[in-house]
Amino acid sequence: MMPISPQRIFNQRGLTLIEILLVLVIFAGMASIGIPRLYRTSDNIRKAARNMTALTKEIRNRAKLKNSTYRLVLDMTAEPHRYWVEYIVGSRPIPSNLYEEKSSEPISDTEFKKDSTVIKKEKELPSGLFFGAVETINTKEPIKQGIAYIHYFPEGFVEASVIQLTNRSGLTWTLVISPLTGQADIIEEEKLLRDLNP
Questions:
Q1: Does an H or E element contain 60, and which?
Q2: CA of residue 5 relative to chain centroid, distance
Q3: Domain 35-95+108-196: what homologous superfamily?
Q4: How far are the Cα atoms of 15, 20, 152 from residue 6, in angstroms, in the given order?
């Protein structure tokens, strides 16, 4: 057996220590970049969920006070995703052909007017957030692109619905809007109406 010289042991330990320090520096760099970004996305989705929760209560109250049918419009046609509020005086049923592309009697969007008292102008979701899907009791499938509507009636009822907010990288929260109270409950995971009403 060949004896190991003290010089060789020193060189091996020194190299190992340098490698460890290098790995620690890399981890520290990655953490300084990644952790704030993770918290920022989490804060954005939390803030957006709270804003939407407050908005849905306000729309329900306004529909009752103004004896009007309101709707929350969720626009997923382009990025950033946007939303706004529209209304029409009186109680109006939801057209059965609202989401049909080829319909003999399409809904006239000119009947509804934007309500700038609830939201002054169209709002955009924070950077990096999107509407993942919108589903109501009246949609056949969750809507993942285009424009979706959630209706609020003067009698105090709301179209039962869910709105998914997502960063498209594994973080998805769901707002579940109650048809009786208009209250939006936040679930910190991806859900659809069929998941909630077995």
A1: helix 6-66
A2: 64
A3: minor pseudopilin epsh domain (3.55.40.10)
A4: 14, 21, 81
